[in-house]
Structure prediction request, 1205 residues.
Amino acid sequence: MSKIHITTTVNGDPAEFLASPGMTLLDALRDELGLTGAKEGCGSGDCGACSVMLDGRLVCSCLVLAPEVEGCRVETIEGMAQGGQLHPLQQKFLEHAALQCGFCTPGLLVAAKALLDAHPDPTEVEARYWLAGNLCRCTGYDKIIRAVMDAAAELRQERAA
Amino acid sequence: MSETLDKPAALNVVGTRPIRPDGADKVTGRATYGADYNMPGQLVGRILRSPHAHARIVSIDTTRARALPGVKAVVTSADFPDLASEMHDGGEAASNLRDLSLNVLARGKVLYDGHAVAAVAAVSAAVAEEALSRIKVIYETLPHVIDVEPAMSPDAPVLHDYMFTEGLETPPTTASNIAKRHKSERGDVDAAFAAADVIVEDRYTTQAVHQGYIEPQACVAAWAEDGRCEVWSSSQGQFMVRTYCAKILGLEISDIRVTPAEIGGGFGGKTTVYLEPIALALSRASGHPVKMVMTREDVFRATGPTSGAVMHVKLGAMSDGTITAATVELKFQAGAFPGSPVGAACMTALACYDIANFTIVGWDVVTNTPKTAAYRAPGAPIAAFAVESAVDDLARKLGMDPIALREKNAVRDGTKAAYGPTFANIGYVETLAAIRDSDHYKSPLKPNQGRGVAVGFWFNIGGESTAAIHISEDGSAAVVTGNPDIGGSRASMAMMAAETLGVPVERVRPMIGDTASIGYSMLTGGSRTTFATGMAVVQAAEKIILDLRQRTAKLWDVSVDHVVWRMGQAECIDPAKPEKKPMTLAALAAQSGRTGGPISAQVTLNAQGAGPGFAVHVCDLEVDPETGHTSIVRYTAAQDVGRAIHPSYVEGQIQGGVAQGVGWALNEAYIFDRDGRMENAGFLDYRMPVASDLPMLDTIMIEVPNPRHPFGAKGVGEVPIVPPLAAVANAMRGAIGVRMSSLPLSPPAVLAALDGKG
Amino acid sequence: MPELAYLAPSSPEEAARALALAGSRPLSGGTDLLVQLRAGRVKPGVIVDLKKITGAMGVREEAGGFVIGAATSGAVLGEHAGLVRAWPGVVEGANLIGSTQVQGRASLGGNLCNGSPAADGVPALIAARATCVIVGPNGRREAPVESVVTGPGKTSLALGEFVLEFRLPPRPARASDAYLRLIPRTEMDIAVAGVGVNLVLDSAGVVTHAHVAIGAVAPTALLVADAGAALVGGKLDDARLAALEAAVRAACKPISDKRGTAEYRTKIAGVLARRAALIAYDRAGA
Prediction:
């Protein structure tokens, strides 16, 4: 099977890999680039555990073909903490105990960051609908939503300062 | 040991909310789950699954698969020993090893859609999948049966011609699908019903539901030429995986080393093996490590859901609300092999009630559906759905407040439980009172809204655990246990160690050992880890303290009785030696080489006296009367938690159980087509709650300490899933004025109930 | 094993040539195609990515109406203020497809051509009287949206043809639309029934034009002429709304399946039609 050479940017760094035409972005990240933070919970776009940003849009990486990301910008959970500092969302997830098993957590964090980048002051209902594509079976979402709302407030304060 | 411990006047760590020790790894994507691990040279393993619900396997021809370049191994049940029937006590529940083996790979017959038939290992997923398509299996399809009552019928297709019902007064002479009858009784039920002022009764049904963990089962297995095997897998117990692999493959336990990966949820569903024995067999056959990961479809079709059930409950009461009589009959789908949780369902069904006369009968029935596996308080939510719905109807018929009725009949310390033992140190009535007195319970409802109350019970267990503590030369502590951390237990282990040692929790690093580096521990399940393994951790810390006091006594040349351990340091209380300054753990660790070598302790125990859990929930929901669509608008869960070690994770357990229970009540269900194939084997149509389906889930923690645990902990993880099914159904009764006795309460069902009201 | 190729043509003509190849399959957002690929339900030899084609992406205003590139994601549609103002129902239909993640990819073109009877993006497009510009080896043609899907998973597109863009007609004053669907949860489900309603009012609030389309209650989404006619000529009083409900229910030919019974689907289609009509009416009058 002839593979395609893909050149892309992952978390700000140039990245190259070979992909078979039917390979998903999720498999490319995990198997070709060694970035296993994005998880496969379903492979059908129903759980959100594989969420990444593609050219600034939140997507399920299991629903993107690797060849589609040629020349694109990909951001994953591995790029979220910067300079040894957790992102405020990551910090708030820890403070609020917004994770139990932690398997859905990378996807939820990527999705929550996309929410706050687009809507810095979401209502609880908006946050719940935005995150409806990220299944969590452990927490009942309560502490996740609290963490997201708290992080939003902190980020707004940081921006105002 | 506790007499050697100078207990701090107040707790410094237990009851606080520190950041979990594995937190940074889990918010950055670094934590390594089952599918995140790879071995050099590994192959991809794939499983061929039955497309039939029930069929005889006439032949399996793997020739064309083996001939495909890149295929390194093909295995079927012929590559596994044909085990005799033998029960193995895995901890939370016993398993029959033969059934376990037959479930891992079918032999002679397939018993459900998705049953594994053969497996291949190949150099890539594409080659492995192509190989599966080249395996030719000839089936002779057989009539199948999915639902429990048809499976009990005398003319039902029989799954196992060697199975004869256990537990009957007269042993049967013909095989049937009824594996076992459970029965318990007290008093004179007939007389009590005859004397009752009020009687309610109804028939209730629930459907099979899945644990729904987000991480599919995954493992990597490597067989070495010397026969030593390594398994890396995501499970609720590495020792369970080791034992089952050894038994299923006929290996020595000592030849298998299992390393627990981070586990992406289990809820009981990862208390057994599916992939690991196959991966090992493929590795043995190919000479390469083999990685296997389930698809979500595999998870639904082939891993344990819990039972669907048909139940009948009848209650009799006097006009003052005293419940005097109860009959409960529970018929549970076991799936392809015996072992539904109907036994536990029978034991828990009336556990919250002090009733003088009752009969409880349970039926364990095999069906052409995936073998059921444990699911959070196995069996109890199903029984509670029926009993708590009936109690709600009884309250309505008596004109009593539903909490007042439950308070009137509540078990208390000293009550002999329906399942046998006498309760002590339980916090049930306190929990009832907490809901009764809550703002939620007193708040008004809006139109189309209803409120439901339900209660729940779960035993909680203790069991065998090992813990080791190693003090580093800087005085920090490594705490090693044998229990996978499924929901934050590392945090509670570290906290209990820190509390006991008197050091900051950040100085404690909790770890989970593989089967070769820590002693045996029963799996993480039964809400046992914080209780039992936590007790081992505390005792290991106490052992360390005794060691430190002895070392200090030598250094100071005083009696060990004159050295006390307080706030993380040794203090001299010998009046003759007032000059001795306290020595910190770090100071003592630094000179451990001169006082006897490294400081380390291990404790093994078989913990008894786990305090049972009681939960009382109140749910408000709103129904759209034109569509039957339901929204949960408010939910409060109160629970006796003994003592919350890390309150946030206790709240999290309660909230998670509520969410699963709400999903079970409203939308989740296995759906089978006419051929017995699962129609909704994916997250799109197996509808678990999403974030927008739920409100905030309020919790009230009642702390009635468990005297058997050093800090009073009781198991907390399971009982929160027990009340929600009935709490939702009772709220629905309030909202629409109709009793819905079949789950799920999906919009079409609700609208049909509304229309039927007339 | 079959070889798979990935092509990303930049012109419609090139795409039409690629799609004429044996075993080719168009890819827009991929939110249906990748699921089908993984499940083995489709085994294409060539995947033709339409997202690099000029014209297939983005929203533009032309001749007083809107042109929507067929491969444009739902998220982009939702961010286009002008489109949302003129056709809120079309946009809410598109925006109900899947999660936020799916919105980052899923397109109206893909939603239509996948051929699902329950496609959320389609009823409002039909009610809007939108047309598709279809490109194929023999050039371009324009066809009403409702003519594309002929049955579950089936379309009237000829070999090599694909939908390049949707054209929405110019919008008069006092006109609006709405789309409602019912699902068991609040998100992430396939519609059990869906209804799009498109209304034009006169200055007195009398409905002058009305179009109603239904989804998930027949083998394809349907334009229900009687339902539209029931609303024309007056305000939305109880009698007209009752006639609307009756016309919608009469048009339903649903199946019973794991997502809902035929009886249930039919019943709520009427409820959704009435509610969507009231929303569209409010919007049009605002």
Remarks:
- The CA atoms of residues 115 and 130 of chain A lie 7 Å apart.
- The mean pLDDT of chain A is 97.
- Chain A has five helices and five strands.
